[in-house]
Amino acid sequence: MDDPLVAERQASMKAIAEAARTIDWMFSRRRDYDSRAFKGAAETIRQHSGEALVSQFPLGSFGGHSGATAEIDRSREEFVALSNHLETFAAELSRAADEAPDRLTDDMKMGDHVPLGGSLLGRRPGRDADADPSTMPAEHVFHLMLEDCASCHAKFREKAE
Length: 161
Description:
Layout: H1 4-27, H2 35-47, H3 51-54, H4 71-74, H5 76-99, H6 138-156
Helix pairs in contact: 1-2, 2-5, 5-6
């Protein structure tokens, strides 16, 4: 029988992934922009991050059917920081949707002057670590959020075989 905590974590991760996909499709124009759907997706991510996410990984809750590693216990401060960044970025995306009720505005999108960030393996050390997301285009905030997801998964998750 599956552990209910693991099932809860997996459901949260699936909700975050689906919400991120919704936002990605709007930025990539595979889906028409809808501010309510954009905001709803950002709020889903926000609600499943920060303390809500951290609380799903109590000390010693690893093994079994979980892909989470005990590295979360050893590097709890880093795990908490990544989860809090996720919440901050999602809140900023939600705010951006409030300010753009009709369309993706030019100031929401990354221009040629904004670098694309790190690699798929996570954020490059020191890049935008202390930058205020409210000063960045929403699309850049979204990419930084995805880098945090990739960094967290690279360090704290085992691939299922």
